[in-house]
Amino acid sequence: MSPGSAPSGDHSSASTVTISKPTVYVLDAFNPEAIAHAKTLFNVILPEDLSFANWRKKASAILIRGSYITAEDIESCPNLVAIGKHGVGIDKIDQEACSERGIKILNTPGANARDVAELVLALTMAVARDIRSITVRQMSKPVPKETCNGLTLYGKTLGIIGMGNIGRTVAEIFRGAFDAEVVACDVFMPNDEWPHIPHERVKTVHEVLKKADVVSVHVPLTKETTHMISYDEIRMMKQDAILINAARGGIVNETDLGKALSEGHLWGAGLDCHEQEPPTREKYGALWAHLNVISTPHIGAATTRAQTASAMAAVNNLYNYLMDTRD
Ligand SMILES: NC(=O)c1ccc[n+]([C@@H]2O[C@H](COP(=O)([O-])OP(=O)(O)OC[C@H]3O[C@@H](n4cnc5c(N)ncnc54)[C@H](O)[C@@H]3O)[C@@H](O)[C@H]2O)c1
Question: Is 162 in the pocket of ligand 1 (CB under 6 A)?
Fold first, then answer.
């Protein structure tokens, strides 16, 4: 069943048998529409409910959004069988501990892809047209247009690292908006992926970095992708290329990015994801001193549409899994 769609199966063939609702503990704030929907499927226990206090001992199913679930958490939850995760990234959950216990993690791939991809477009265009530098300078004195210069994105080459839901949507948008050439890599996707998008499939990240005018990163944060884009990789990029990270902080090495920018490398960078979130001036002041860097505090999915779709999908995915595995 696709995420966000209605629960499947005829679980109500119970004209004679009454099936009790499963119980779910909701650890984080969820969209009210999704909570109302969850209440039609589950006994929903929220943090403000009295019975929430002892959730670790009792919970067989939980819904989370931003919470960390560590190996210690898993150990303290003897009955846990499934975790519904609002959103795509599952790097805050100890996946090894879950796998050892056979605990299923159900995230919501695709539910926010359109919204994150649109933010990638916004960041790329803002960096290309030097919007931050111009608007910041204008705060202190008028900026003559003769001192401004931007990059044209039409016909440029877009490089996608990670050809999943978001990477694909970004490629579709750039094809439509800019008639962009597309070069992409993904270590897991089959070679015939993206039949509807004219593109060059390359084997390595380095090939993408060398060829692209705009590089957009869309891989999960894993051991393999941590600091995947460090100093040598940034220096491999064209001098006037744009780097976008709306995937996870830690994929782009932030210290190395600052160093490369100080050396005049890159046209600029757009970062929706940072090693420290939300990013602060104390930590990022030096990076932000480069006015060709635009940072946002992980807002790729911060739209009403994406929040509702992801929350509903998390509820439905968890419910369907519990029904499908019910004795
Ligand atoms: N900025 C935001 O608000 C926001 C919102 C949602 C997701 N995200 C991030 O965006 C990432 C991508 O999301 P998605 O929905 O497209 O996920 P997805 O699972 O659909 O796609 C990820 C792709 O990365 C590929 N991949 C994994 N490891 C790789 C590697 N080492 N090299 C090359 N390719 C690799 C996978 O094969 C997959 O095709 C997520 O992992 C998440 O961290 C950010």
Answer: yes
277 part of the active site: yes
Residue 189 in contact with ligand 1 by CB distance below 6 A = yes
Average pLDDT over residues 162-187: 98
Please calculate the CA angle 158-163-165 and round it to the nearest 5 degrees: 110
- Nearby residues of 80 by Cβ (< 8 Å), 6 or more positions away: 59, 60, 61, 62, 74, 101, 103
Q: How far apart are CA 30 and CA 32, in angstroms?
A: 6
pLDDT tens, position by position, 193-246: 999 999 999 999 999 999 999 999 999 999 999 999 999 999 999 999 999 999
| pLDDT for residue 120 is more than 70 | yes
Angle between helix 254-262 and 281-288 (nearest 10): 30
What pTM, to 2 d.p., does this model score? 0.90
Catalytic residue among 72, 263, 277, 305: 277
Q: Which two tokens stand for residue 41?
A: 């499927």
Look up 75 and say whether it is catalytic.
no
